[in-house]
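Quick one, T. Sequence first:
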Amino acid sequence: MTIAELASICHANGLALDETQQSLLEQYARLLAEWNAKINLVSRKDEAHILDRHILHSLVLAMPSVCDYDFRNKHVLDIGTGGGLPGIPLKIALPSSAPARLDITLVDSTQKKIMAVNEMIAALGLTGIRGIAARAEEIGRLPEHAHAYDAILSRAVAPLEDMAKWSRGLLKQGGVLFALKGGDLTEEISRTLRMKGVASACEKPLDLIGYPDFLREEKKLVRVDFTG
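Structure tokens:
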């Protein structure tokens, strides 16, 4: 996939990317491949498919046809970010001017991955985004992160019920969890709905105009809303 093809698919699904955003996403793809040669950030078999399998996959969060959440002026936590996914593509794709600026914290338990993420953020010249090394199940115990976020993002890091459990202590009142997962999620969603503090949990197939692969691979966006 080329950056022009990615931009065309995004546009067909309600996300317009200008030339600067396209250039940054293309630069990020190159940086991710370069760092992946040193640190395992994405699967080696996916190195030739970073734009579609990783960056496009992350950008569904900014497509109104898939996700109708308004990320403007929100504080967001990306758990298990690895090489900065989905947080860095989302940050590039959404408006960055105040007061609508999206603020993102990227979390991973592996220090080397966070070092790479922060190096890439600096190389891209992005602001309002940073990486920190921490375990997802422990970060909520830190005062500066407790109930500090409007939304939490994750790409298949853990079972949905674990993500929901960690999220409760991190989200503000009315906060939401978005998880990019695949396959049959019936049991995961059922277990999550039985958890205290969960108001709703639903899945949406990633049925993109111009790109059928996600639907064929049973990739989905799961949204979990919490009570109180």
